[in-house]
Amino acid sequence: MKFRKSVVASIVAAGVALTLGTAGTASASTYYSVPGGQVKFTSKGEILKVWDTKAGKTGLYVSVYDLSAKNPTMDWCNVKGKGKSKTCNMKFTNGHKLEINVFSYTKMSDHSTRKLVASWKDKA
Question: Mapped to the 3 state alphabet, what secondary structure does the chain carry?
Answer without folding.
Answer: CHHHHHHHHHHHHHHHHHHHHHCCCCCCEEEEEECCEEEEEECCCCEEEEEECCCCCCEEEEEEEECCCCCCEEEEEEEECCCCEEEEECCCCCCCEEEEEEEEECCCCCHHHCEEEEEEEEEC
